[in-house]
């Protein structure tokens, strides 16, 4: 699916705090994620998963603490994480191809049109490449969002509930895609609710509650216990 | 170099989405035209009184039309959180501002170009001989409005009372540029036209100062 443009990169959160006014979204979160790991963030709604992912994507600045990317080479576009959020983060008025070419060009991807077409084939949207995203179904939008995140062959991928809006076939496709990306050496961090084909890829699970890490495991039974956590 | 290539890419996106939807150009053109028509009925065109009011009216119409433009400038980036994907993708966040303010300036100038013939007809003013100097005033005034408006649009888009905040911040900030633009335009449209170079220089300085401030502080306006 994706050959990394740069060597694998890890993630290090050191005593991260995030406050919105008087409300703590994250409290002293410290996590070290090794290059190539596939980590699932679990927890109830409002536990801080999205905030942690947005800090990792450098969209949100932490109130306190430090984020670093061990193993990162320079400050090139390929060193920036790929991020899939709750929203598609693409333009509804542009076509699927125009969106991908736009983000490829902004990130100095060589031959943006060829790369966009390659990804459109991989996410099964090549036939709809000239359709504006506004006309896409929820599942198709999620596919284009994932293609956008992968466009610059990032070393770190951050997914916030990536299976949202996908049907069972779409979830199988997502699990295969994420598996391929992870096997190519890309570090994957995703937030999920419950067990699925996608969560089966996880080699580690971190549970958040009220903005703090309450469990962190790599071993079988504990891993499944955290993954099966409903997060209602 | 990355700043300029990112700006060019984003500018082409801005132009493509606008010419596809024609949302801003239609709204602003219709708005300006209505204002000019209404006031041409309120005053007697061709009189000295109309000639005195016309420059102020012209810039007031441009101001209100541009504030319609700025209202949606950053707001439409929030629909799908595309501002976050842009911030992730660009090397320099100033590219986002630069593309938007160039696009806003172009849209304003295009609206003004469409409006000027109607302005000349409704107020019985011959613009042909004054066109080079008038174009310079319109260009510098529009850049000033676009720079300040784009910055305020980015700030207000993140606020809760954004519809209220934009005019509240924008109008006082633009007062100097509007006063000077209207004064310079007024002396150009006079029976004995004079080019007020000091006023034109002021507009140039205003543009440079605000553009520099945006370059230095712009990235903070985009933070959540």
Short description:
The complex is a heterodimer of chains A (232) and B (224). Chain A has 232 residues and is of the alpha/beta class. Helix content of chain A is 29%, strand content 24%.
Features:
heterodimer; A: 232 residues; alpha/beta; Rossmann fold; 2 domains; six-stranded mixed sheet; 6 helices; globular; B: 224 residues; mainly alpha
Q: Could you explain how this protein is built, in words?
A:
The complex is a heterodimer of chains A (232) and B (224). Chain A is built from 6 helices and 9 strands; from the N terminus they run βββαββαααβαβββα. Chain A folds into 2 domains: 1-81 and 155-232, 3-Layer(aba) Sandwich (Rossmann fold); 92-153. With 232 residues, chain A is an alpha/beta fold. In chain A, the strands form 2 sheets. A 6-stranded mixed beta sheet of chain A has the order 5-6-7-3-8-9, sandwiched between helices. Chain A has a 3-stranded antiparallel beta sheet with strand order 2-1-4, with helices on one face. In chain B, helix 6 runs antiparallel to helix 7 (162-189). Chain B has one domain. Helix content of chain B is 82%, strand content 0%. Chain B is globular, with a radius of gyration of 18 Å. By secondary structure, chain B is mainly α. The mean pLDDT of chain B is 89. The chains are: A alpha/beta (232), B mainly alpha (224). The interface between A and B is medium-sized, with 28 and 24 residues.
């Amino acid at each position: 699916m994706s050959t990394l443009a740069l060597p694998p990169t890890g993630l290090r959160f050191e005593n991260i705090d995030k406050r919105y006014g008087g409300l703590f979204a994250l409290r002293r979160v410290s996590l070290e994620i090794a290059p190539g790991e596939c980590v699932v963030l679990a927890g109830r709604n409002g536990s801080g998963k999205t905030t942690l992912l947005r800090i990792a994507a450098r969209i949100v600045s932490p109130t306190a603490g430090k984020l670093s990317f061990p193993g990162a080479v320079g400050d090139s576009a390929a060193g920036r994480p790929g991020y899939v959020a709750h929203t598609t983060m693409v333009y509804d008025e542009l076509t699927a191809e125009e969106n991908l070419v736009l983000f490829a060009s902004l990130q100095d991807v060589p031959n943006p049109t060829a790369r966009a077409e390659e990804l459109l084939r991989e996410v099964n949207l090549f036939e709809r490449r000239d359709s504006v995203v506004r006309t896409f179904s929820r599942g198709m939008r999620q596919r284009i969002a994932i293609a956008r995140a992968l466009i610059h062959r990032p070393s770190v991928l951050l997914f916030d509930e990536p299976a949202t809006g996908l049907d069972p076939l779409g979830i199988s496709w997502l699990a295969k895609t994420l598996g391929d990306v992870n096997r190519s050496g890309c570090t994957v961090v995703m937030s999920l609710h419950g067990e699925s084909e996608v969560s089966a890829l996880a080699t580690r699970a971190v549970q958040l509650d009220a903005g703090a890490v309450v469990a962190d495991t790599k071993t079988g039974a504990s891993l499944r216990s955290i993954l099966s956590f409903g997060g209602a | 170099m990355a700043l300029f290539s990112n700006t060019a890419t984003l500018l082409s996106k801005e132009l493509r989405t606008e010419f596809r939807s024609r949302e801003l150009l239609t709204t602003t053109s219709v708005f300006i035209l209505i204002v000019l028509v209404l006031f041409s009925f309120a005053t007697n065109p061709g009189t000295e009184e109309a000639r005195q009011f016309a420059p102020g009216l012209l810039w007031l119409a441009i101001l209100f039309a541009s504030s319609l433009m700025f209202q949606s400038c950053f707001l439409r980036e929030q629909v799908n959180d595309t501002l976050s994907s842009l911030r992730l993708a660009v090397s320099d966040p100033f590219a986002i501002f630069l593309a938007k303010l160039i696009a806003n300036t172009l849209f304003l100038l295009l609206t003004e170009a469409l409006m000027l013939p109607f302005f000349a007809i409704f107020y019985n003013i011959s613009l042909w001989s004054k066109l080079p100097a008038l174009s310079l005033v319109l260009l510098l005034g529009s850049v000033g409005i676009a720079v300040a408006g784009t910055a305020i649009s980015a700030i207000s888009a993140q606020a809760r009372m954004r519809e209220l905040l934009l005019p509240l911040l924008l109008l006082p900030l633009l007062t100097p540029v509007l006063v000077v633009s209207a004064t310079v335009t007024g002396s150009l449209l006079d029976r004995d036209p004079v080019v007020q170079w000091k006023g034109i220089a002021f507009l140039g300085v205003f543009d440079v100062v605000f553009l520099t401030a945006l370059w230095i502080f712009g990235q903070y306006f985009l933070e959540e």
